[in-house]
Amino acid sequence: MMQWLVAALVIAVIGLAFVAGYVLSRRGSREPTPDETLADARVDAQRILARAEEEARSKAETYRDREDATLEHRRVEMGSQESRLSQREATLEQRAGNLAQREELMIARERAAESAVGEAEAVKEEARGTLERIAGFDSKAAKAELLDKVETEARRDAMALIRDLEVKAREESERRARRILGTVIQRLAAEVVSETTVSVVPLPSDDMKGRIIGRDGRNIRTFEAVAGVNLIVDDTPEAVSVSTFDPVRREVARRALERLVEGGRIHPSSIEEAYEKSRQDVDQSIRDAGEWALLEVGLTKMHPELITLLGRLHYRTSYGQNVLNHLVESAHIAGMLAAELGIDEKEAKRAAFLHDIGKAVSHEVGGSHALLGAEIARRFGEDPAIVHAIESHHNEVEPRTLTAILVQAADAVSAARPGARREALESYVRRLERLEEIAGAFPGVSTVFALQAGREIRVVVDPGNVDDLQAGDLARRIARKLEDDLQYPGQIEVTVIREYRARDYAR
């Protein structure tokens, strides 16, 4: 309010100055007397002051009314806020009361639950005591009696199993006689067996047979375990036979034995060394075979891994037919058919040459060799038309191109020629592969060898994961698995080999 009064006085003084100037200008050139001037100035000043006081009073009243209205509004707002705060405080007090009631209720329930648990434990102890009094002995004695009962039942089951084995052995006598006759008949097919499952290693003299066998059979057992083959030392003069269904394994074993015979020093460490060197030689021969087949067909620009896989097919057979030779024949046939029909000869040759590439891994991975071969070709950047011809050559995928149909025709012509394939041999090899696959699926198994035409399986286990007790149990489980999954004449002997070697070096 004081600010308004000061402003009004300033305005009044300014107005007085303007009025004095105006009066002086109207009087003109006449010089007023001092009394007149002073009287006029006083009159004007009083008039201005009166007007200024009136304006200041009016403005002060307006300001006061506005301030009173503002204060009244704030007072009303404060009252409403106090009312809301009172309501919230009442609500909080009510909630606090409800929480206190709930807490008391929870405490009461917990106490009731604890009391019920205590009563249940008491009833349980009372029931246990009652049972022990009725039975006449305590829980420890009952547990010991249960263990004794389980042990007795286990022994009885073991005795029953032994009895069943003895009965089965008597029942198998006639079947074994028939199997012996079948083996004799099979030996009459000497040409087929010797070409596909047996390799003969010549010896400089019969004295070398004794060195191959070693003291107490140590050398021959080591050789068979390392190479995974069956070494046949019979009455054949100056010759030893290496037998297994896997041609790659047989070739490695044959070269290793020839290397040992040539060196003259045969003992377990030299056997392992010769086997490793022979394996490297066979790997190199696999690459050479793949490159030879590529040159024979006249194809170029093929991934090195595909060439290696093709080389592995040199040691695989399909129904007795060499797979790599079959691919070369199929490529030539497909090329000639394409030339006669006037279509792309190189594409037909390439598709036919690669159509069985899946057989290089199908026995290791499992599944259809056509689909596996298509996946391999796709992975190594072959043309989609080539991939389609590979996956459709056994109608697992419907052929959509003329090249795919030509591949089917070339495959059939190469396989159907007289003497190309033998059904019995392929089914026999597949059975041996199935034996190794089943035994190799068990945990802790390192290597599996199927020997004696599938009548024996040798399972080499990791000594760090399988102990002696587990080895016996593993042999039983593998035998039960073979009984459940396979059908075979006679019986299959399962041998689990666990050999622990500790090695250190003196420096």
Based on secondary structure, the structural category is mainly alpha
Low-confidence stretches: 180-195
- Summed up, the helix count is 17
Q: Please indicate the percent range of residues in DSSP E strands (runs of 2 or more).
A: 5-15%
Shape: elongated
Radius of gyration: 54 Å
How many separate domains make up the residues? 5
Q: What is the terminal-to-terminal distance? A: 109 Å
Compressed to H and E, one letter per element, the order equals HHHHEHHEEHHHEEHHHHHHHEEHE
Q: Give, in spatial order, the strands making up the sheet with the most strands.
A: 1-3-2
In round numbers, the mean pLDDT is 78
Biggest sheet overview: 3 strands, antiparallel
**Quaternary organisation of the protein chains:** single chain
Percent helix among the residues? over 70%
Strand elements, count = 8
Describe what this molecule looks like in 3D.
- The protein is mostly helical and 507 residues long.
- It has five domains: 2-131; 137-188; 202-282, K Homology domain, type 1 (Ribosomal Protein S8, Chain: A, domain 1), CATH 3.30.1370; 304-421, Hypothetical protein af1432, CATH 1.10.3210; 430-497, 2-Layer Sandwich (GMP Synthetase, Chain A, domain 3).
- 71% of the residues lie in helices and 7% in strands.
- The chain has 17 helices and eight strands.
- The chain has helices at residues 2-27, 34-135, 139-188, 190-196, 207-213, 218-227, 247-263, 268-297, 304-312, 323-341, 345-354, 362-365, 369-379, 384-391, 402-416, 423-440, 468-485, and strands at residues 198-202, 230-232, 239-243, 317-318, 321-322, 445-451, 456-461, 493-497.
- It has a three-stranded antiparallel beta sheet with strand order 1-3-2. The chain has a three-stranded mixed beta sheet with strand order 6-7-8, with helices on one face. Strands 4-5 form a two-stranded antiparallel ribbon.
- A hairpin with a 6-residue loop joins strand 2 (230-232) and strand 3.
- Helix 11 (345-354) packs across helix 14.
- The chain is elongated.
- The protein starts with a helix and ends in a 10-residue tail after the last strand.
- Mean pLDDT is 78; it is low at 180-195.
